[in-house]
Amino acid sequence: MKSSNRKVIISCAITGATHVPSMSEHLPLTPEQIAAQAIEAAAAGAAIIHLHARDPADGRPTPSPEIYRQFVPVIAAASDAVINITTGGSTKMSMTERLAFPMQAKPEMCSLNMGSMNFSIHDVASRISNWRYDWEEQYLAGMEDRVFRNTFKEIRQILLELGEDGTRFEFECYDVGQLYNLAYFADQGLVKPPFFIQAIFGILGGLGTDPENLTVMRTTADRLFGRENYEFSVLGAGRHQLPFVTMAAIMGGNVRVGLEDSIYLEKGVKAKTSAEQVRKIRRILEELSLEVATPDEARARLGLKGSDQVHF
Fold it and tell me: How many CB atoms lie within 10 A of CB 25?
């Protein structure tokens, strides 16, 4: 069993593809804003920076490699954090679009959703009365009738095409069944430990935010992989962000914060940057006598190829 006093890896997800600009004026939309927030989050203690791109004209999610290249090299030049590029994109993107930049960049790490699922925050649309851009309302409300698709064939494709160049993965698991999907690919020899499992709670369509579910995911991963073969990380969506990641750290896991997962710093107070959330969870961790891992310590534990092997 791993030592309970191992340093905690903080991941920070800067902007995502779920929240829309009308939900928070602080959500980074332009390459300059994304780069600035990522660099600040890394300086605050995030070892891993998880990135999506947005169209700077109106903030909509985009898979454009040209836009990614306006901020990813800037972050890489200003920080030694692990850069983690999404392969999820958004529920409206095709597989070809989602892989466009990762296939060019060959990053140290990419996120990988471990199955198809209903993924929605469509109820939020009814609570917004003033929209900044005309695409947002349809985008949010339309989630009720969209599925995030990642079939076994598509997951295999991502593992083979990106894994060939040494990219490793943040395996995003929204339910217990997705842990079994990961175990299937491990049995096929397509993925090897150490696995970086990101257990996700609070998204409609996935596991809810009952604390017992955290134990279920942890103990199921233990049975499937053996605790010595994986790193456990947790994100809680929305108001559940800090309670859930704190529980994860106490259980010997790692944590993820950032404006992709929650636009709030505390009840009724919006976070101005993702770095505010990083600083807050770092303070909580340190008050629990837990240390924070550096990027190079995270690289060593996750078996990453190193920042000198990417194509930014």
Answer: 10
Question: pLDDT of 173-183, one tens digit each?
Answer: 999 999 999 99
Q: Domain boundaries in the chain?
A: 10-309
Amino acid making up residue 154: E
Residue written as token pair 């900044």: 132
Q: Tell me the per-residue pLDDT of 153-171, one tens digit each, with 9 for 90 and over.
A: 999 999 999 999 999 999 9
Tokens 């997705």 identify what position? 178
CATH number for the segment(s) 10-309: 3.20.20.70
End-to-end CA distance of the chain: 37
